[in-house]
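note to self: dont lose this again. the chain is below, predicted strucutre after it. 288 aa total, dont forget to put it in the shared folder this time
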Amino acid sequence: MPELALFLDWELNCQFAGVIWAMEAGLFERAGLLVDVVPPSRQSGAPVLDLIAGHGAAVGTVEENLVMQAAAAGHGVRAVGAMLQRSPLVLMARGGVGVQNIGDLHGRRVAMHADGAAHLRAILALHDIDPAGVHITVGGWSLGDLEAGQFDAVQGYAITEAHTLGQGAWLIPLHHPKLSPSSIVMAAGAQTLKAQGAQVQAMVRAVAEGWRCVLADPARAADHVAAVSREHSDPETNMAILSGIGAYANGPAGICGLDRSQWSRNLETLADNGLVPGGVGIDTIIWD
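---
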C-alpha cells in the first residue's frame, strides 16, 4: 500500500476536521493509501515546506502565501488542494484598547506568525497604511500575551482561537478584494509529484470526502476531533466551531479545490507588493 506523510503546520484540532474524519473513518485506506499524519509535535522543528521539499513521499499544510513564495523562488513546491476556500485569518484584539479595524493599527503592537506577517504587510499596503508604521513582532507569543496587554492585536483564526477569547474580543478580518487567500493549503514537492502524483490526488480526494462528511454531520465530527485532539478535546466547543466552518470550506472551486482566478489575483497582488517576483505564472504555483 503506497505510503504518504502528511505534515501539518498545527496540532490536530478542528481546523483539520476533514483529515481527522478521513483518519477515523478509514477513508485513506479505502483509497488504497497509508497516510501518516504528522503534527508539529512529531516533527523536527523545520518549516513544513522544507520537510516536504526534502521528502520523496510527502504533502504538507501551509498558508497560501508561503506556497506562492516558495514556488516562485524555484523550490519546486506546488499547491495541490486547499481545505478552506476562504481564510479565517484575523487579528484579535481585546475590547477597550481602541483596535477595532485595520485603520486603528498605526503605531500599534501586533504579533504574527511567520506565515501571516507578509500577508498583513500586503493588507496594510492595500489599505494605504505604511507597514513600517505598525510594530509587527514575528515569532513566539501566546493569547496570554494579548490578555496581559503585551500586544494590541495578535494573529488568529476566527474559527478556533476566537472561541477561546470569548466575548469582548474584536476580530479584524485580514481580507481585501485584491487579496483574499484560501487557507490550510496542501502542497507537495516536485519529487513527490513526479513519483506519486496519483497517490497525492487520491489523498486530496479522501480529505475532501472527509470534509464533506464533517459538513454533513458536525456533531459526529466534533466527537472525532475530541478523540484525538488535546487542544480541542471538548465535543460541545468543537460542535460550535464546526457548525460554522462550512462558510470557509465551501467556495467556487468546491471542497478542497483551487480557484485559479482567485489564486491568480492574489499572486498579482503579492507581486505588486514585492512579496513574490513579478511575471510568475499560476501554473508554477498550482498543480492539478
